[in-house]
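Long-time lurker. I teach an intro course on protein structure, and each term I like to show students one example going from raw sequence to a predicted 3D structure in token notation. This year I'd like something fresh instead of my usual example. Would anyone be willing to generate the tokens for the chain below so I can use it in lecture? Attribution to the forum is fine with me.
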Amino acid sequence: MISKHFTRGVPPSGFESVALVEEDLNGELMNEDIRIHSWPCSYYLDTSKQWVSGRLSLTPVAIKFTADKTGELLVNFHLSSISEIKKESSNLIFSSLTILEKSTKHWFSSLQPSRNVVFNILEHFWREQLLSSEGAGAEAAALQSTKGKELTGLLTGSQKRLEDTAKVLHYQGEQFDNIMRGLNKIEGDMDVADRLLTELESPSWWPFSSRLWKAPLETKPKETATVSDSKNQEGIIIRIPVIITHRTDSNVKPGKLTLFASGLEISDCNSQVIHRFESKDVDDIRVHTPYEISVRQRFIGKPDTSYRLLSAKMPEAIPILEMQFSKKIQFLEDALGFVGARKSPQVDLGTSIWQAATGLLGGVVQPSSPVGDREGVDNDQVQLQKQEKISQEEAKELKQILKKLKGLALETEAELERQDEALDSITTSVDRATLNIDKQNRRIKKLT
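-- Reply from a regular --
Happy to contribute to a lecture. Here you go:
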């Protein structure tokens, strides 16, 4: 099942497809035009010594301020260039937010809905930008990255996605095992009910009872399914820092979002659980932007339970949420570009990785072997000289990742086959339990 998907052939230009896909994804997700959030406020313009009203905007990599009257972009700097974000007061009266960018201090005041909300969100994205690989010096590192590193990063992402899928699949297998145990318990209860009803239908003290001459009933062998040892604690798929908004925009605080195979959990900075949504409790998940989602549980006769979550790491969690809640997740207009960028190259992404990696590894291990047909050897050699080659260390790392991916794919396929057998056993047990329940119900009606 899974292995078939991984072994499909692709044209020799697979490596170029992977590189283009990676470039498109980075371009879509980290584009400075993507606006995460914006707030109306005032900015102190030092040149004219006056406050200018406008909007403060946050993008994945930068902070901008645009004046309302002129539409001029007065502030535009990278998050990695920020040295400090503080809450201060201007003229000892007005609450303000200051951002120290290199040697320049920017003052923002009259922030809506509140200064604390803007401060928490800006500080979160600033901190995550510094901690991530795309923090300070990310542009220089990107220029120096080789195609081998690009492919390694792509394969590492694929490995992580497959590991997350395997965790969800493992939890699903545990649920099947629990169902089978429950069905076995029901079958045992039906045996007890059968003995009790037989006792009531023909008591042992009745002189014409046939039970006096019957030998003891032999216990029926029960069909048991292979049950895997379940862990005491449920495994965590992913945990990311988030900014939590509950009901009103002013009620904002930092916390964590933890995704399990059975649902999701929202907690504060001290790991105290604020709310836990089981999978069946979630009615809808809306993706507002690649960095912001809202989770809601509907109720009749009382307010819905809804949380809005904003995080710089949200693009890592959205694919898992989409897999777990495929029928409940909804991408809004600002997030359609994100889902389109991820889904459009899926066929190339799933099929070209292996061909591209194989071609690269072959080129490194056997650099003297011809590429393509004999007639185009000279042209191919010229192209190979122009292209950037990968090192032996990168080739070894790619081999290790490919081995892990192959092992994960085989384990996932084996688990799927085991679950198919478990489903067949569950279907048979459910049919048998239904017949037994109907039979005992008819016997009870005769006695009453």
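Some talking points for your students: The longest helix spans residues 392-447. The radius of gyration is 31 Å.
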